[in-house]
Specification:
- The structure is a homodimer.
- By secondary structure, chain A is an alpha+beta fold.
- Chain A folds into two domains: 3-175, HIT family, subunit A, CATH 3.30.428.10; 177-329, HIT family, subunit A, CATH 3.30.428.10.
- Helices cover 25% and strands 23% of the residues of chain A.
- Chains A and B meet through strand 2, strand 8, strand 9, helix 2 and helix 3 of A and strand 2, strand 8, strand 9, helix 2 and helix 3 of B.
- Strand 2 (13-16) of chain A pairs parallel with strand 15 of chain B.
Chain lengths: 335, 335
């Protein structure tokens, strides 16, 4: 049974994922195994994954068989246990929660070699619909306090399978990083009576130098205090608290800007490893006015080392003003 | 001129290190250059580094010549500028500080192939003396608010040179991560009237399962909420706020436990990449009662990916109770 344990000083939580437990010799010598030729996400291998939770597929095809275009299954090696009750207990001075949580994999395409950046726009839209559907289903579970959708692309970004996929983890507590964003935007709202994300989007559009792209509903920019080279955020232009509130025409434009920004990064940096994380407000909680959902894309080009770990400071050798210009000027080949 | 920029939501600072600026094609394809055969930290190459700030060397040898056993120089590619004044200014809604700071390299040994874990105990002691000397000198600078001593060992931990060295960065603000530790320990003190680090050391010694080693002055353990496999902390057993207050006999015992813990990790995991970070209270500030200096060692065995970046949660597949047992049971060969 995995456990959530809280660092009493920093109040950050860790998941001690006993189901994945490793012994020291597992870390010695061998780096990650090379990706084998077998892929559980290819057509015909549906029986090698846990049963599908959701799939977009023709009505005349069967569950867990080929034909789907987006497919969601439980992670075969979940960090958390969906059957657990999130009971809380103490261990001396420490706090523990039993490891309840949901860990799902969104297979973004049946095409083993495809890349989210170069997938047809229509397919990216389907992926966003799948995100929304799972998000809305999970936020109804009273044990769930937060749903994080994220993607690891490339081995250096932590992807263990090559086949294009994203992931979703639902946790019984609000993660520290999200809580800090919510607190930070609450403070700003108390001071200014405006949403800090709306203000950022406005200043970015006013200055223009860090803008990567925009459309009617979304704006993408390299944040002023970017932690990483080529870090890019995508925000709804109109204030929107919860990702679950995204509507059909917004999904069209979110898919368009996401695909296009990923394609710019793919082209400028020759398909670099990257992570993206979708941050959303917490449904049914206060904060509607001051928090604003967004997607953070961070290419993994530099190593995080002792200084960053020790300080929470980041050293970024590429000014975001340069990133804005480079990414705006990328020539996008017709897909 | 580098700039410190503040993320207005998270209040984390980043260093936009323009002196190290890179263009997108610098990130394309080529991974880090292989370490060349020339090493600026070897005897005879002292003229290829910035002039030495401090060196332990025989009285009859000259500055910036061979003969030293520990040598400290400015980083040749500093993230911050020691000549700058830390002026503050606004940029629209954003906060900026001119990039003042000191970035030094502590060359731990003249032996190019040596490893801190297997260096003679006496030499590790000299390294700690060098840390203390630079720490005490820099904390006197009124522009300096924090001095972070850290080490990157191995390429996967961010070391760009193989020759054993640690680093020190002095910043004009207290880093967010340190501030959070100070705040967290302040809250605990307000509630319990005791130092949280002292309480942790006591609970760890009481339980014993996560203890790696202890001596008269220090205790080393795998923290209950370890973020990473084989994460190990070293704390003074008696309450001590500021690393600068460490005394001669404590230095002996700190060197002994540091060397021994690193050797256990080196032996158990076959010389893995790791970072360590020394966290200390801020001199001249309040907090003497509730903060407690310590060293955090984190072997780099797993990749930090989208979930960790997006949530601040960590997934750790190795329970710290197992780490305590493994590392206690390592057979240390006589050095």
């Amino acid at each position: 049974m995995p456990e959530l344990r809280k660092d009493p000083i920093m109040k950050r939580w860790v998941i001690i994922a006993t189901e994945r437990a490793k012994r020291p010799h597992d870390f010695v010598g061998t780096k990650e195994e090379a990706s084998s030729s077998f892929c559980p996400f290819d057509y015909g291998n549906e029986h090698t994954t846990p049963p599908e939770i959701l799939a977009f597929r023709p009505a005349d095809t069967e569950k867990d068989s080929p034909g789907w275009w987006v497919r969601i299954v439980a992670n075969k090696f979940p960090a958390l246990d969906p059957e657990a009750e999130p009971d809380k207990f103490g261990h001396g001075m420490y706090d523990v929660i039993k490891g309840f949580g949901t860990h799902e994999v969104i297979v973004e395409t049946p095409d083993h070699k495809a890349n989210l950046a170069t997938l047809p726009y229509k397919q990216v839209k389907e992926v966003i619909w799948a995100y929304r559907e799972r998000y809305k289903a999970l936020e109804k579970d009273p044990r769930v306090r937060y749903v994080l959708i994220f993607k690891n692309h490339g081995k250096d970004a932590g992807a263990s399978l090559e086949h294009s996929h994203s992931q979703l983890i639902a946790t019984p507590i609000v993660p520290k990083r999200v809580m800090e964003e919510i607190e930070g935007s609450r403070e700003y709202f108390a001071f200014r009576d405006r949403c800090i994300f709306c203000d950022m989007a406005n200043q970015e559009r006013l200055e223009g130098t860090r803008i990567v792209e925009e459309n009617d509903d979304f704006v993408a920019f390299a944040p002023f205090a970017s932690r990483f080279p080529f870090e890019t955020w995508i925000l709804p232009r109109v204030h929107q608290y919860n990702f679950g509130s995204i509507e059909a025409d917004q999904i069209d434009r979110f898919a368009a800007i996401l695909k296009s920004v990923l394609l710019r990064i793919y082209t400028a940096l020759d398909n670099p490893p990257y992570n993206f994380m979708l941050h959303t407000g917490i449904s049914g909680e206060e904060g509607n006015q001051y928090y604003h959902w967004h997607l953070e894309i961070v290419p993994r080009l530099t190593r995080v080392a002792g200084f960053e770990w020790g300080s929470g400071f980041y050293i970024n050798p590429v000014p975001p003003e340069d990133v804005g210009r480079y990414l705006r000027e990328v020539e996008l080949k017709k897909q």
